[in-house]
Amino acid sequence: MSDVDLDEQTRADLTFLLETLGLRQGVKEFTLSYGLVADNPDTVAVLTKSILDMMIDLARQVDVPQEHIDEGRTMPTFVDTGLGGSLFLVQSSLEEPEMPYVAIRDRGYWFYIDDRDMISKRTFGVVQILLSLTDAGEQAKGPVVSIGGG
Predict the structure, then answer these.
(1) Average pLDDT, integer, range 92-106
(2) Which end of the chain has the smaller Cβ count within 10 Å, N or C?
(3) Is residue 60 within 8 Å of residue 44, measured between CB atoms?
(4) pTM for this one?
């Protein structure tokens, strides 16, 4: 990384990162692949959740009516006690929501993402993109990802 001016701390952090990931020093581009172990020193292997895993995690963020829990239709909403808050919240109400971003009525309740909930709207958008990438039709193409610059 000699053509980039880095302060001493950033250079030390970069060296630590490359050593920790088992990557060669001085290399500017690395291949990102799916897997547990990289097949060469210029590859970063990652294991990600499946789309199904992500959908299950997001489903736990739906504010479900107590009536649906009592009837055995669903499990209670997951309550995150960690820092940072939720990335996704679907609210429920008997009344039609005033400012929905998306909404659907099911079994007498409205389920919706509030239009003022920027984080949930962003997460919903990412999920839509991820789901579009799972399209197996003839015209389906994988994503092109570029990381870095300069």
Answers:
(1) 95
(2) C
(3) no
(4) 0.62
